[in-house]
């Protein structure tokens, strides 16, 4: 008997990546150096991501995983053919700003960089795969940090606007789905990763971060404006690192704390989606003596250019307490740590596994914004091992995804409008938080290790055929 799918017709099943985690070719064909090209593996990586790099030049003899990554730059045809074989309806990728404007403030764009993405989009369209493009995914051209202090500086708004107008003009006939900034709320937690922020001595951190946030929010609204002008049928969204924050207990103090934690992230998309600063943010600025410098017309720009949809990543729910003893029991997570939730298991990297959380999070976002949602990241980072016959039996990944799809189906039944789902890293790629290759998300294995050794050969895992079946049945055969 054929089961009826909960997923709407035309649901955009696919996979998601970011330029710096797959492309490699970090200085090829005129590309400039970006923030991520300065991130080694190990402890030093975190220090830099938090905004404290010791230098803005790569060291000799240090291994930087983004420099070669999985070499998608030279393998994109083969990789896209594999996505097509799985039946992908969409593929999320980011454009590297520094391929288009190597320094960020160049007068003319780099034609070789533009051509590369033309080739990639053509290849996707050949298989009827819809490109979903993130305009900025954790990579600011390093020159913009050296010369202007990156997003601390209002000038970045102009450079970003020029970059966005250039790519909208160039790809207007090829790309319909866009997103302005990947996980825009990352800025508060890993400021170098999110916005190329380097702290100087004596700076008030919150002042720096919220001023940079204002610049990104205005830049995002101007990108929405440009996109709507240049590509009338386009859909342009924001992108949030999501995951409902649960109170550890029903103590109102915990509940209030959880609400505040949620709002720390919602702040960004409240502005992007509702077009104005929320009251709780204004209060936060007052209480903390923060003054956000705005230019005349900023409020109007924000008000008139809100996003069409809400893109979000979901890996885990989070949990918070006001009890100092309970707070000690932390576990890791995407962007944020969390109090360990006693009801839930965690991944090998300590990320909480909570399939119901995706339903709760999707409902919460839809209740709040009443705009279509797009799940643009989700998945399980795990160590994969070869069986004696050389295959990779990644049933743990299948289990994780199956449970999340079931809950996504429930969210759709709840009435939540969801455009599509792109799982993170359909092909193994470099981990953003650790720089490891060992933390694998893919349906496709890539022969490369944490030190950059390996043939880069691709190999289908067991989950490859499973995901193919899921897509073919539009989510009814899990
Ligand atoms: C998100 C990012 O934070 O999570 C991705 O948008 C990242 O770039 C993904 O790769 C998974 O995180 P990690 O650290 O496992 O790579």
UniProtKB/TrEMBL annotation:
Annotated GO CC locations: cytosol
Domain of life of the organism encoding this protein: Bacteria
Similarity comment: Belongs to the glycosyl hydrolase 1 family.
Keyword field contains Hydrolase: yes
PROSITE patterns assigned to the protein according to its UniProt record, in alphabetical order: GLYCOSYL_HYDROL_F1_1 (PS00572), GLYCOSYL_HYDROL_F1_2 (PS00653)
PANTHER family xref list: 6-PHOSPHO-BETA-GLUCOSIDASE, GLYCOSYL HYDROLASE
Name of protein: 6-phospho-beta-glucosidase
Keyword annotations of the record: Glycosidase, Hydrolase
A molecular-function term among this protein's GO annotations: beta-glucosidase activity
Active site: residue positions: 377
One biological process term in Gene Ontology: carbohydrate catabolic process
Coiled coil: none
Keyword Transmembrane helix: no
